[in-house]
Amino acid sequence: MNYFVTAIDTDSGKTMVSAILCEALQADYWKPVQAGLPRDADTVQKLVGNNTIIFPEAYVLKTPASPHAAAALDGITMKLSGFIVPPTKNDLVIEGAGGCLVPLNDTDFVIDLAAKVADVVILVADLYLGSINHTLLTVEALRKRNLRVKGIIFNGQPNRESERIILHHSGLRCLLRIAREETIDQNTVKRYADLLKENWNE
């Protein structure tokens, strides 16, 4: 199964969630587009305590910016045909770039990449003023493209009312809640992976 990790905004916690999923599912990892440093793949490798295989990116761009802009600065035009899912016998966690409607080029968005390479989407929602709107709009976009969403992972300072209304209107379930952590290491990831496994098949 290919799980695509996307989010409602940039810096939402997709990389940590990807590491948690790799730990919980004993899955491999692929970041199709990396824009700027540090590489998210290096972070996942440090955080996962199992034998997760880290596959190389399809595109590595120099500038930490929207992929379409970073690619233009590097003289590259990304195409959906350039994204080939790496072969593995394990589940594969695929980490997107930014949010669903981040452009890859003048035609395609990250959500189109998800439709091409993934079986199921995991949505990460960090909780801030405006996140209800951003989360529900993202869910609408995913459903418009008939993408299957496994559930939502909330990240950051808890806001029970925001979480409740998002789940109510989206009809999705909460897979995990991640608190603000002073230290993020393999032990942290393992603790959340164990919690995720408890909710995974409900």
UniProtKB/TrEMBL annotation:
The record's subcellular locations are:
Cytoplasm
Describe the reaction catalysed, as an equation: (7R,8S)-8-amino-7-(carboxyamino)nonanoate + ATP = (4R,5S)-dethiobiotin + ADP + phosphate + H(+); (7R,8S)-7,8-diammoniononanoate + CO2 + ATP = (4R,5S)-dethiobiotin + ADP + phosphate + 3 H(+)
By its UniProt entry, which SUPFAM superfamilies does this protein fall under?
Answer: P-loop containing nucleoside triphosphate hydrolases (SSF52540)
GO terms of molecular function = ATP binding; dethiobiotin synthase activity; magnesium ion binding
Which positions does UniProt annotate for ATP binding? Answer: 40, 95-98
Family in the record: Belongs to the dethiobiotin synthetase family.
Task: Please state what the protein is called.
Answer: ATP-dependent dethiobiotin synthetase BioD
Instruction: Tell me the organism.
Output: Ohtaekwangia koreensis
